[in-house]
Design goal:
Chain lengths: 708, 582
């Protein structure tokens, strides 16, 4: 622990920290020096072994910055290894041990389908086939009492079967183990004893919450991705060591915080949502500092656009989510398409509108944009790599919003004529429109879709988007943000610093955050402080131990307790903060009723039930990137300047529009129409909007008139 | 203008934007219901739905909620307009639940809120909620064994519950007095109103943006667009009349089977759906009023349309549904209707059977045939009452190009299940099994989904059991040579000595007794003898089909331990032909 301590101390005082975001197309690397100076590199992702791209990107940023590998004190990593393992079905041969009578809980799931009227739908295959789902003889009752003792022979028989079948990892989930984990723990011990090579995960060791399918699914995913994550993290450590970097690796977790390698190796299910968490963490860090602690986070990439919200500087979280392939519909009515994970995660709504989203006319003559995407390869038509179907990027190209010669700081040559031809062929001619009108149409349909994702995390959650600022980043965010904001009545747009690699930068601002939960099902009135205190103490011990393992002193540990509450008889719950210094039923009840009112619009006076106590243990440390004193290496600022013709609204002629470098904002505000270009981002300022430089490297845009 | 551009009035871009906006608005209406409703049946089970209709009452958009509800809207809307046409103003909302005026069963209360623009109706917001109770002889107002609708609860003709934004206290107090849980019911009605208002506000915004006249035109175009797509597709279907008959085992009061017979006629670019020949109306409460029969007929056709047809009434325009008066699918008042859901499922099964002759590459063999409903009511030791209502879903039949799905909602609904741990927490029962039933999937080239088993041990002194199951007598049919799925079953007692119960049961259960239900399995699609031996072997390997059944029903010899196919033996067996192999 001493060396970890020392290293982290050095990270905070002198060295360089590196954030790495592995995307579908590019791996982004941001290196931050203590003074706030940032260096950036962007290299191709290497899907077969992502650690190759990561090390290439790190090597590039080290070379560019002249920083010695030994000076690197921490690497924060957003990884898609866990999520890709699930999507590609490339996980371990996984077994499942359940209570007798319940081997099929995993496959039965929650019965719903994501669509209607689609008789060709395919239900996701369970990650454990029925053959490897075995039953142990045992039973715990709902109150935790033992109905039938654990028959140890049945567990040993299962272990023998798993071994004979070549199973590598096993999840154990027994009915009512949330109320009494003894049988589950004993079964895991027996499995380890009988088959030492089996990687066993007990459901109560992940998060012991009520609902057997959700808990089983979570434990199974954990077991399924375990060997891959371990292999990857070991390989990455080795490759970093070869580069001369001995610094500890931190992994971004789904909850917007980060966890150490030890946790990622034991409970990788917490990092399945690692990818999008960095940008959210960055936005949460910046917002309060520039007067917008409440924010909508809007991240538009090549394939999808994602929205989430930050309230009082904290990302809005859900306690369970469904992980699935491709696009999550923003509609809350479409469950059943993925793998349920009952772990805290940033509440993200996603729509299939990105720069690469393809526009087409459907059989009934309707213009449709996405979710089909040309991705980064072959990419939009203008890339000239063989795709002849128009994308959102091609629409932006035709309208003059994007640089007509090259994107990505000049590294990616483009041909606007290919965009024009694609739109003409696939959209304009079939609809009898001009190419410009068709391009505006593609843009508008994409904007409406993206607005819908934002509505899903605001209006549908009882929040008015007009009260919030919109922080945009990702390759396309700043291109569309002002128009999307206007649709929703949002007045203030913030363009994040280094928008194109903001997720990687955001990781460097994240705190360590570990989640724990203990069930305590009881009517709130019947719960005394004496019932709660030992549970909170147990949670505290778990939290402090986890953070101590990552080198945090007591003084650096921040404990955020919370309670899950619901009205008696309901099955869904709300999480309400709980003061650390003690439990008071009346205050908790009021807090819950207020939260209920905020979310559901009314305030019943019915009896309240306590469901779980939760802890998020946060490791705070000085020296994390706070964006207040950023300076960018010159390469990150490279930009063109000049004038080009831009079409801002349909039917109106294109107007000569100044194209300015980001630095132009230093000398005052810029009124639209204007385009601000930098290395990796294009900011569109339509007529009526005004941009000014804001703190923390942001651009603040007053959108002018809104539609709502 | 080219052929497939939208109608001449419409700008194609605005059209696309308005369509997406309507989909978003109707989901927001639906979400508001969840946010503001009081009852579990709405909040957790999500038994409700939302739609937006144009000025004429034609549905232009629907939320992803209960499909089965929405085809009933046209009939209900006619009743509303017949009574209130020209007499409504802003802030009014009309409710109704009468199955004989376009409703479905009494717990489903419809609310219609007109959206006004320049003094005329521009659109309607419609929200339907299944209410926890609407009075009548049993809690929940949902008994299958009532014999006339007067036993089933409060019947509401189209009446204004809100007038000029204020509540109609006369109607509200009548409702409050006639239901068992007035707080819940009134709370949910207010949730419906709140959701309607959200929809109205958003429609107003859309009209502000695009102009009232234009928005009217776009809404009309949305319907025309769906109608065009539907007609274009039906035009490719082979002309002719296609018939199919499926059965409900019985109405529970007698043992007589209840046949449902459909004849679908494919015209040039439209369909007639004729239910002549179906059973006369029955004594028990499984009668389906015409609006509900239409609803299930429509949604069956919608499942047979490819691609991207919007879910709106443009589809309904191409389908003409008739059922003889006095039949189980168009009963005369006062026939009871509370448990009509079962009949709705079978309407869909019969429709699919006929549609499979028209578009054989799209339609699956029969699925389980509807939820089994298990109700246990009694008292805790402290004399407080408990009522457990549990629904057991099923599976889909084999499909023309892939196997059926096991453990899935019936396609006419989208309900969830109750976690065992939640059930045990709330009620004095212990669930001892929740599992797939091996060999219950109908054999076929593409196998039907397996049925589900669920068992309940009673931990209270005693309880009244009400059980509604079907498909014990008439199993889910197979298609194209596929065999029927496994029958459902009800048993009381321990595995070794259990006794068989009928499909529909009302009886007393005692402490420690074990009730077991097996839901039916889906029918198979295609000849089982044509199923790839590897697929059969995979099912054996995976414990979904036994080695015995693989040999007897598929003609594939599989080593039970390894899942390996014995190719020689299989070839020999299959070359003998099906009949001898079994």
């Amino acid at each position: 622990m001493g060396t970890v301590d020392a290293m982290r101390a050095e990270a905070m005082t002198g060295g360089a920290r590196i954030g790495v975001d592995v995307g579908g197309t590019f791996t982004d690397v941001v290196l931050a020096l203590r003074g706030g100076q940032l260096h950036i590199s962007k290299v191709s992702t290497t899907p077969a072994d992502p650690s190759l791209g990561v090390t290439a990107g790190i090597a590039a940023v080290l070379a560019e910055s002249g920083i010695a590998p030994a000076a690197v004190t921490e690497v924060v990593h957003g990884t898609t290894v866990a999520s890709n393992t699930i999507l590609q079905k490339a996980g371990a041969r996984t077994g499942l041990l359940t209570t007798q009578g319940f081997r099929d809980v995993l496959e039965i799931g929650r019965i719903r389908t994501p669509g209607m009227f689609d008789m060709s739908w395919k239900k996701p295959e369970p990650l454990v086939p029925r053959r490897w789902r075995l039953e142990a003889v045992e039973r715990i009752a709902a109150d935790g009492s033992v109905v039938r003792p654990l028959d140890e022979a049945s567990v040993r028989a299962a272990a023998a079967w798993f071994q004979a079948e070549g199973v590598q990892a096993v999840a154990v989930c027994f009915i009512n183990s949330y109320a009494n984990p003894a049988h589950e723990q004993r079964a895991v011990a027996l499995l380890r004893e009988a088959a030492p090579d089996l990687l066993a995960t007990a459901s109560c060791e992940v998060l012991p919450e009520i609902k057997e399918y959700e808990r089983t699914s979570t434990a199974v995913v954990n077991a399924y991705i375990l060997p891959n994550m371990r292999g990857y993290l070991s390989l990455l450590s080795e490759r970093l060591a070869q580069l001369g970097i001995a610094a500890p690796i931190q992994v971004m977790a789904s909850n917007g915080g980060m966890v150490g390698v030890a946790t990622a190796r034991e409970r990788p299910v917490f990092v399945v949502g690692s990818g999008p968490a960095g940008g959210v963490a960055g936005a949460a860090r910046i917002g309060p500092g520039i007067g917008s602690p409440d924010l909508i986070v809007f991240d538009m990439g090549g394939t999808t656009a994602k929205a989430s919200i930050i309230e009082a500087g904290q990302p809005s979280l859900v306690t369970e989510y469904e992980f699935r392939d491709g696009i999550s519909s923003p509609s809350r009515f479409t469950k059943g398409a993925g793998y349920m994970l009952k772990v805290p995660a940033v509440d993200i709504a996603e729509v299939g509108s990105g720069g690469g989203s393809i526009a087409r006319i459907d059989a009934g003559g309707l213009l449709v944009v996405g979710p089909e995407s040309a991705g980064g390869d072959p990419g939009p038509a203008c890339y000239g790599r063989g795709n002849r179907r128009p994308t959102v990027t091609d629409a932006n190209m035709v309208l003059g919003l994007l640089n007509p010669e090259a994107l990505a700081g000049g590294s990616l040559p483009v041909n606007p004529e290919l965009s024009r031809a694609a739109i003409e062929q696939e959209v304009a001619r079939p609809l009898g429109l001009s190419v410009e009108a068709a391009a505006h149409g593609i843009r508008q349909v994409a904007n409406v879709n993206m607005a819908r994702a934002i509505r899903a995390v605001t209006v549908e959650r009882g929040r008015d988007p007009r009260d919030l600022a919109l922080m945009a980043f990702g390759g396309g965010g700043p291109l569309h943000a002002v128009e999307v904001a206007r649709m929703l009545g949002i007045r203030r747009v913030l363009v994040a610093p280094i928008s194109g690699v903001f997720s990687a930068a955001g990781m460097l601002s994240a705190e360590a955050a570990h989640d724990f939960v203990q069930p305590l099902l009881a009517p709130l009135d019947a719960v005394a402080e004496g019932d709660v205190a030992p549970v909170l103490a147990a949670l505290r011990r778990q939290g402090e131990a986890a953070l101590a393992g990552e080198g945090y002193d007591r003084a650096e540990v921040l404990l955020r307790f919370a309670a899950d509450l619901r009205f008696q008889g309901q099955s869904s719950q709300l999480t309400v903060p709980l003061p650390e210094d003690g439990f008071e039923a009346a205050a908790l009840r009021d807090g819950f009723r207020q939260a209920y009112q905020d979310t559901f619009g009314y305030r019943p006076e019915e009896p309240v039930e306590l469901v779980n106590l939760r802890l998020t243990a946060v490791g705070v440390a000085a020296g994390r990137l706070d964006f207040t004193s950023l300076s960018l290496a010159p390469s990150a600022l490279a930009a063109t300047a000049g004038t080009r013709l831009v079409s801002f609204s349909r039917g109106a002629p294109a107007v000569p529009t100044p194209v300015l470098p980001r630095a132009a904002l230093a000398s005052g505000s810029v009124a639209g129409p204007a385009i601000i270009e930098s290395y990796d981002t294009t900011v569109v300022l339509p007529p009526g909007s005004t941009a000014t430089a804001a703190d923390s490297g942001c651009i603040a845009i007053d959108v002018g008139v809104t539609d709502a | 203008m080219p052929d497939h551009s939208p109608g001449a009035l419409a700008d194609p871009i605005t059209f696309a934007v308005v369509k997406n906006a309507m989909d978003a608005i109707v989901d927001e209406v639906a979400y508001t219901v969840i946010r503001t409703a009081r009852s579990e049946i709405v909040k957790d089970v999500m038994d409700y739905s939302a739609a937006i209709c144009d000025a004429h009452g034609e549905m232009v958009a629907q939320a992803k909620t209960i499909a089965q509800h929405l085809g009933a809207i046209p009939e209900a809307m006619q009743a509303v307009q017949a009574r209130w046409g020209g007499k409504l103003s802003p802030g009014d909302a009309v409710v109704m639940n009468d199955p004989y005026l376009g409703g479905m069963h009494l717990p489903d209360i419809f609310m219609f809120l007109p959206v006004f623009r320049d003094g005329a109706i521009l659109a309607w917001i419609v929200v339907i909620c299944h209410h926890t109770d609407v009075g009548g002889r049993v809690p929940g107002s949902n008994a299958a064994d009532s014999t006339e609708i007067y036993q089933e609860g409060l019947r509401i003709p189209p009446l204004k519950l809100f007038s000029d934004g204020g509540v109609n206290e006369t109607l509200e107090s009548i409702i409050a007095l006639n239901v068992r849980v007035p707080d819940r019911v009134l709370g949910d009605l207010r949730a419906q109103y709140a959701a309607c208002q959200v929809g109205a506000r958003e429609i107003q915004r859309l009209a502000d943006r695009y102009g009232t006249r234009q928005l009217r035109a776009y809404l009309a175009e949305l319907l025309d667009y769906a109608e065009r797509m539907t007609r274009a597709e039906i035009a490719t279907w082979p002309k002719g009349t296609y018939t199919f008959t499926d059965h409900i085992d019985s109405d529970g009061l007698s043992d007589a089977p209840v046949p449902l017979t459909v004849a679908i006629t494919v015209h040039e670019d439209s369909l007639s759906v004729d239910w002549s020949g179906s059973s006369p109306q029955v004594r028990a409460a499984i009668n389906s009023t015409l609006s509900f029969t239409k609803s299930n007929s429509f949604l069956s056709v919608r499942c047979a349309l490819r691609g991207e047809v919007p879910n709106n009434a443009g589809v309904f325009r191409c389908i003409h549904v008739t059922a003889p008066e006095g039949s189980v699918l168009n009963p005369r008042s006062p026939a009871p209707v509370a448990a009509r859901a079962l009949t709705g499922y079978r309407v869909m099964d019969a429709m699919f059977g006929a549609l499979a002759q028209i578009v054989p590459d799209l339609i699956p063999a029969a699925g389980e045939g509807g939820n089994t409903v298990v109700c246990l009511g009694g008292r805790h030791p402290d004399n407080t009452p408990f009522i457990m209502v549990d629904m057991i879903s099923g599976c889909w039949g084999g499909r023309p190009d892939q196997d059926g799905i096991e453990a899935i909602t019936n396609p006419s609904q989208n309900l969830s299940n109750t976690p065992v741990e939640v059930l045990e927490r709330q009620h004095p029962v212990r669930v001892e099994e929740y599992a797939l039933v091996p060999d219950s999937g109908g054999p076929g080239r593409f196998r039907g989904g397996l049925g589900l088993a669920r068992s309940y041990r009673l931990l209270a002194e005693e309880a009244i059991l009400q059980l509604r199951a079907d498909r014990l007598v008439f199993p889910p049919y197979g298609l194209a040579g596929g065999e029927p799925g496994g029958r459902s079953g009800n048993w009381l007692g321990e595995a070794a000595e259990r006794r068989t119960l009928p499909g529909k049961v009302t009886m007393t259960m005692r402490r420690g007794e074990l009730l077991t239900h097996h839901q039916a399995g889906g029918g198979g699609h295609g000849e089982p003898w044509q199923r790839a031996p590897e697929a059969v072997a995979a099912d054996v390997w995976n414990g979904k089909v036994t080695a015995e059944a693989a040999q007897a029903r598929y003609g594939v010899v599989v080593d039970a331990a390894t899942g390996a196919v014995d190719r020689m033996a299989t070839q020999a067996l299959r070359s003998q032909g099906r009949g001898e192999g079994r």
